[in-house]
Write a structure and sequence with these properties.
The chain is α/β, with parallel strands linked by helices. The chain is built from nine helices and eleven strands. The chain is globular.
């Protein structure tokens, strides 16, 4: 199933979390069926385990098979690629990561999130060298890349222009203390919202859920949501595929928030 511009994918980070048993997952559901269940309620998941270590090709194939048509996975890029002083030297690590078996996800492979430490500062030449290392495909599967930067030095028009040149998305971090760069820089949008609270049964208030549903629809239609911080000039208009993940915050509430946002963005 080919995904299209204007499509909205909403999900959570990972699917193995003990407190979700009995709150999100039904009591008694075998752990080996948790991804299958999550796939019946959500339409995307960001895999975090790929940040910490390599996964087997068989695992990617299994995840593909356990989720329904139309489901899509985002992947965290390996920390061995991004947690380094000189990004230009990341070539072997990037190649190792993209050839580790992720192509087994096939049509369910969404964007790769290359996350950087809060201490990593913007060095234009070195960062461009890193972008040049990111391949456009592996084993015939298209690769899409997004970067999550967390230092205020990246809040520069030059950074936005660089991402647009390479078609790489700036990940919008929201409802947290992280640096926010909500500029649209690629044919897709990648957002991570982190404001769920235990006191809210659905993680966010009704108004908060309405706000993020409205934002997702605005991005999908080619607009820029109100109330988010941008750095550079507006992007060219055009429908975009949207990936929105409810991350961190009160993690127990994240599946409920994601499901509520899916309900609000249907149709």
């Amino acid at each position: 199933m080919a995904h299209q511009a204007g499509e909205i994918h909403i999900g959570i980070g990972g699917w193995v979390f003990e407190p979700w048993r009995g709150t999100f997952y039904p009591d008694g559901l075998p752990q080996k069926r948790e991804l299958e269940y999550a796939g019946s309620k959500l339409n995307s998941i960001e895999i975090n385990g790929t940040y910490y270590g390599s996964q087997k090709p068989e695992s990617f194939a299994k995840w593909r098979e356990e989720t329904p048509d139309g489901f899509v996975f985002a992947l965290k890029g390996s920390r061995f690629c991004t947690n380094r002083r000189v990004l230009a030297e990341a070539g072997p690590s990037v190649e190792k990561f993209v050839t580790s078996g992720l192509a087994e996800l096939k049509h369910k492979l969404g964007p790769i999130n290359w996350q950087f430490m809060p201490t990593k500062k913007f060095d234009p030449d070195d960062f461009e060298a890193f972008l040049k290392l990111l391949p456009k495909e592996v084993d015939g599967i298209r690769l899409r890349h997004a970067v999550e930067v967390r230092h205020d030095s990246f809040r520069a028009p030059d950074f936005v222009a660089l991402l647009r040149e390479y078609g790489v998305a700036a990940i919008t971090s929201a409802d947290a203390d992280y640096t926010q760069i909500a500029d649209v820089t690629a044919p897709f949008v990648y957002a991570r919202i982190m404001g769920t609270k235990e006191a809210e049964p659905k993680g966010y208030s009704e108004a908060g859920l309405d706000r993020w549903a409205k934002a997702a629809r605005a991005w999908a239609q080619g607009g820029v949501p109100e109330g988010l911080e941008t750095v550079g000039p507006p992007a060219e208009a055009g429908k975009r595929e949207v990936f929105l993940y409810v991350i961190s915050g009160d993690k127990v509430r994240n599946p409920a928030a994601a499901m509520a946002l899916i309900d609000r963005t249907k149709g």
